[in-house]
Amino acid sequence: MQKNLQLLGELQRIDLKLDGLQGEKEAMLAEIVALEAKVAGAQAAIAVKNEEFAALEAERTTLDENLVTETENITRSEARLKEIKTQKEYQAVSKEISTAKKLTTELEEQILQKGAQAEELQAEIASQQENLQALEQNIAAQKGEVEERISGLDSGMVKDMATREAIVKGLPVSVVRRYARVREQRRGLAVVEAKDGSCLGCNMNLPPQLYNMLFRGDELITCPHCQRMLVLSPEIANG
Ligand SMILES: [Zn+2]
């Protein structure tokens, strides 16, 4: 049983180490997700600007078409003016022409304005695209670095898993099962030290009789309060 207790302590140590490495790995994977989100965010911002640009161009096309129509109307009205006989009709058509001319001036102004806006937007898009390229390069490098760290972590974990496997083989199956169950119920910590009459897992006092049994080391003792498996703290066990 002494040997089993020692192996249990080792198993717990290596499992905690593996838990820590797994946590590190998950944090790194989250880092990669965050880096990818940055690129996606920049791409989405450009997509929005491209849509704005397309809308602006569509508005400009409509204004262009309106300008063509108004210009044609003016040409037609001016031709009619020559054939008009009455003063009243002449005045009415003249008024139509001047209204249409005013409208074409407004349309021309609007077209110029939209053109300027489109140009400005295009420059913005170009600069954002340039930034995106730089960001993509930067992030690809960062991602590569993180991936390298993950693969280093993975190979370390493979070694630890092999060590763990060897420890498990040295323990009775029933003890390993019990260990796994307690570990699941007690957030990863199934084996704890006992010191000065207390369980260091839950800090409760152990019955003196139980504590004394630990010194004999011929039985697997569990804490009556937290059900964790108890081992003696090494300085007591060895000293
Ligand atoms: Zn306890």
| SSE string | HHHEEHEH
Helix-strand category: mainly alpha
Roughly how much helix do the residues carry, as a percent range? over 70%
> What hetero molecules are in the model?
zinc ion
What's the average pLDDT? Answer: 94
Name the overall outline: rod-shaped
Provide the β-strand percentage band.
under 5%
Number of helices: 5
CATH architectural category of the largest domain: Orthogonal Bundle
Per CATH, the class of the largest domain reads Mainly Alpha
Which stretches are low in confidence, meaning pLDDT under 50 for 5 or more residues running? none
**CATH level 3 topology of the largest domain:** Helix Hairpins
Largest sheet: 3 strands, mixed
As for the number of domains, it is 2
What strand order characterises the main sheet?
A: 2-1-3
| Distance between the ends | 19 Å
Radius of gyration: 41 Å
Describe it for me?
The chain has 2 domains: 20-169, Helix Hairpins, CATH 1.10.287; 173-238, no CATH class. Helices cover 79% and strands 5% of the residues. It has helices spanning 2-81, 87-169, 173-185, 208-216, 234-238, and strands spanning 191-195, 198-199, 229-232. The chain has a 3-stranded mixed beta sheet. Strand 1 (191-195) and strand 2 (198-199) form a beta hairpin. Helix 1 (2-81) runs antiparallel to helix 2 (87-169). Zinc ion is lined by residues 199, 201-202, 204, 223, 225-226, 228.
Key attributes of the depicted protein:
binds zinc ion, 79% helix, 5% strand, mainly alpha, 2 domains, 5 helices, Helix Hairpins, 3-stranded mixed beta sheet, 239 residues
